[in-house]
C-alpha cells in the first residue's frame, strides 16, 4: 500500500509548520490574498440591506434616498417641481430649542406666503412650555424689506405653487421633506424625539416627513394640510413601513375650507387612516385657517400622547 510523501516541502508556503516565522509569513500572505476587513464590512452590509423594492440593496443602517427625476417647469414660482432644496433659516425657542432636551422638539412648518414667525406664534397656544424650531421655506415669494422704521416680513413657500396636485405635488413634497429631514439630521440629536407641526403646505410636509424617514419622527400634526398622492414611486419608498409603525397623527381641517377642495380633505383622511394612528377633527364654520377650538383639541391630544403637558 503506497502513502503520500510526508516529507515537508520548504517551498510550499501552505505546508503545515510549527516555525513561528513561517506562520507569520503565511498570515501575511493570507492578508494579501483576502481583504478581511473589507470582507467583514461587505458581509455586515449584506445582512442589513433591503432585499427588494425601490431601496433594494441599500443599507438599513443608513437612510439613502433615490433621487426621482425633477418634474415639469413651474409657472408660479420659478424652477421645476421637485428642484432640490436646502433649509438655511430657523427660529428657535428659548435656549436655542434645548431648554428641555429630554422632551420632544417641535419642528414648525409654515404655509404658502408666510414665514418662520407664523408657526412660532401658534406654539404659545399649543405647547408654550415645549422646545421648538420654526423653519423658513427656501422658495422666496417676497424678500423682507424696510418699511418705515420697521422691516416688512418676507413671504416664502415650500412648493412651486400654492396647492400643487398630482405628480407636481409628489415631486415638490418629496423635495421639501428631504430638505427638512436633512436639517433635522444635521441640527437635532439623533436620540431626541421630533414632532413636526405644520399649517397648509407645512401640514402636508409634517406628514411627508413620515414618508421619507418614518423611524425618525415621534408623531406629526397637520393643520389644514393635504397628502401627496404618491403617483411617482420614487417619492414613496417607505409607505409600507409607515403603515406598520402606527405613528400618531393629528389632522385638523375647516369644514368650510375654500382653498382645499373637499375631495382633497377626504383623500387625506383616508390615506392617514390607512398609514398612521389618526385623530381627525373637522371644525364647523372654519375656512382654511386655525381656531382656538382646534388648539384646545390639539393640546388634549398632545397630553394623551405624552408629547406636551397640555397646559397654557
From TrEMBL:
It comes from the Bacteria. The keyword Hydrolase applies. SUPFAM superfamilies: alpha/beta-Hydrolases. Residues 19-31 have a biased composition (Basic and acidic residues). Residues 8-18 have a biased composition (Acidic residues). The keyword Metal-binding does not apply. Pfam families: Abhydrolase_2. One of its GO terms (molecular function) is hydrolase activity. InterPro entries: AB_hydrolase_fold (IPR029058), LYPA1-2/EST-like (IPR050565), PLipase/COase/thioEstase (IPR003140). Residues 1-68 are annotated as: Disordered. Keywords: Hydrolase. Gene3D superfamilies: alpha/beta hydrolase. Residues 99-302 form the Phospholipase/carboxylesterase/thioesterase domain. Belongs to the AB hydrolase superfamily. AB hydrolase 2 family. This is COBF protein.
Amino acid at each position: 500500500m503506497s502513502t503520500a510523501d510526508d516529507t515537508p516541502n520548504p517551498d510550499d508556503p501552505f505546508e503545515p509548520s510549527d516555525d513561528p516565522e513561517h506562520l507569520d509569513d503565511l498570515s501575511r500572505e493570507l492578508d494579501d490574498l483576502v481583504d478581511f476587513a473589507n470582507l467583514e464590512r461587505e458581509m455586515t452590509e449584506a445582512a442589513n440591506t433591503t432585499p427588494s423594492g425601490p431601496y433594494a440593496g441599500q443599507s438599513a443602517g443608513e437612510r439613502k434616498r433615490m433621487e426621482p427625476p425633477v418634474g415639469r417647469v413651474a409657472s408660479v414660482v420659478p424652477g421645476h417641481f421637485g428642484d432640490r432644496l436646502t433649509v438655511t433659516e430657523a427660529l428657535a425657542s428659548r435656549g436655542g430649542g434645548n431648554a428641555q432636551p429630554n422632551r420632544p422638539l417641535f419642528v414648525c412648518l409654515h404655509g404658502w406666503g408666510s414665514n418662520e414667525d407664523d408657526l412660532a406664534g401658534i406654539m404659545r397656544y399649543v405647547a408654550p412650555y415645549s422646545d421648538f424650531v420654526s423653519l423658513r421655506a427656501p422658495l422666496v415669494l417676497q424678500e423682507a424689506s424696510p418699511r418705515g422704521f420697521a422691516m416688512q416680513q418676507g413671504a416664502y413657500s415650500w412648493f412651486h405653487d400654492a396647492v400643487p396636485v398630482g405628480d407636481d405635488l409628489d415631486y415638490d413634497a418629496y423635495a421639501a421633506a428631504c430638505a427638512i429631514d436633512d436639517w433635522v439630521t444635521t441640527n437635532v440629536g439623533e436620540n431626541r424625539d421630533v414632532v413636526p407641526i405644520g399649517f397648509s403646505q407645512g401640514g402636508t410636509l409634517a406628514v411627508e416627513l413620515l414618508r421619507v424617514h418614518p423611524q425618525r419622527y415621534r408623531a406629526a400634526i397637520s393643520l389644514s394640510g393635504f397628502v401627496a398622492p404618491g403617483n411617482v414611486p420614487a417619492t414613496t419608498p417607505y409607505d409600507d413601513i409607515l403603515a406598520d409603525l402606527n405613528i400618531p397623527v393629528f389632522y385638523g381641517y375647516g369644514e368650510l375650507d375654500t382653498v382645499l377642495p373637499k375631495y382633497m380633505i377626504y383623500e387625506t383622511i383616508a390615506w392617514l387612516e390607512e398609514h398612521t394612528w389618526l385623530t381627525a377633527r373637522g371644525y364647523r364654520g372654519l375656512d382654511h385657517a386655525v381656531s382656538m377650538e382646534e388648539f384646545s383639541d390639539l393640546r388634549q391630544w398632545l397630553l394623551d400622547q405624552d408629547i406636551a403637558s397640555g397646559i397654557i
